[in-house]
Amino acid sequence: MRVLVVEDEPRMSELLHRGLTEDGHTVDVGATGAAARELVRYADYDVVVLDWGLPDVDGLSLLREWRAQGVATPVLMLTARGTAGEKVLGLRTGADDYLVKPFDFEEFVARLEALHRRASGGTAGGASLGDVEFSRVRRQLSRDGQTLDLTGREFQVLRVLQDRVGDVVSRSELIGTVWGPHFDGEPNVVDVYIGYLRAKFRDLEAERVSIATVRGAGYRLVVGTKETP
Ligand code: CA
User: Fold this and answer.
1) Closest by alpha carbon to 51, among 100, 7, 112, 99?
2) In this structure, are residues 172 and 127 in contact, taking their beta carbons and an 8 Å threshold?
3) pTM
4) For residue 147, how far is its CA from the centre of ligand 1 (angstroms)?
5) Rounded to the nearest whole angstrom, what is the distance from the C-alpha of residue 59 to the centroid of ligand 1?
6) Strand pairing partners for 30?
7) 141-162 pLDDT per residue, tens
8) For residues 171 and 134, what is the distance between their CA atoms, to the nearest angstrom?
9) Which domains, from first to last, does the chain contain?
10) How many angstroms separate the Cα of 116 from the Cα of each of 81, 110, 126?
11) Which of 81, 157, 200, 220 lies at a C-alpha separation of 20 to 30 Å from 41?
């Protein structure tokens, strides 16, 4: 991916630049809104990482400007503020995703890749979930040369969790998206499918991806760290 990082804190931008470059991406950094404007005018980025608090302009205004000009590049907003109101404001303004500092680098990369994949029509062959490859086209999980097929429901549940990697997704959201708004069966059908997915990760001996249960809230796809469900 070609990534633009707009961030004025040198430590943060260095960290993102180094990490993304090591992962094989091409990265430009702009430390001000003015620099970011110039870069976006002359280069074609796959994704933009945009800090909310910049010295000359706030990230949200810059985002509004770009959207008004028809710049459709997916934008991941970074911010130290995490209130629900600001999150909603960021997303309404046209941010495609939102991450609150401090964040886990693996999660950051997974979200960037998810944005890029969605923007490119979701047809990119596969995405890595930690040490497991998830192919949306073939509806398969693979690791170390072993491949498992996903059933239709398993695939849809995992897709929803992947699009929101790191976030808690509630049972009712999963039911609404996967089974439809008129589903009137047992809500624990979700738990059953989460169980099937966990079994597949287990069969693949996955170590860096898991589905965590967040008691009373729902489920969260965790990528990059070991976590016991
Ligand atoms: Ca800042």
Assistant:
1) 7
2) no
3) 0.54
4) 43
5) 9
6) 6
7) 999 889 999 988 898 899 889 8
8) 22
9) 2-119 (3.40.50.2300), 151-223 (1.10.10.10)
10) 24, 10, 12
11) 81
CA distance 5 to 17: 8
Residue that wins the pLDDT comparison between 22 and 85: 22
Dist CA 199 CA 139 (whole Å): 16
Q: What percent of the chain lies above the pLDDT cut of 70? A: 93
Question: Ligand 1 centroid vs 77 CA: distance in angstroms?
Answer: 11
* CA triple 62-3-209, angle to 5 deg: 115
**What confidence tens digit (pLDDT) does each residue in 91-148 have?**
777 788 888 888 999 899 999 988 888 777 544 446 788 889 888 767 889 998 899 9
Tell how far the Cα of 55 is from the centroid of ligand 1, in angstroms: 7
Distance between start and end Cα atoms, the chain: 32
Arithmetic mean of pLDDT over the chain: 87
How far apart are the CA of 9 and the centre of ligand 1, in A?
6
pLDDT for the residue numbered 82: 66
Helices (H) and strands (E) in the chain, counts: 8, 12
Residue given tokens 């890595």 in the structure block: 128
Distance between CA atoms of residues 7 and 226, nearest Å: 30
Distance 1 CA to ligand 1 centre (A): 23
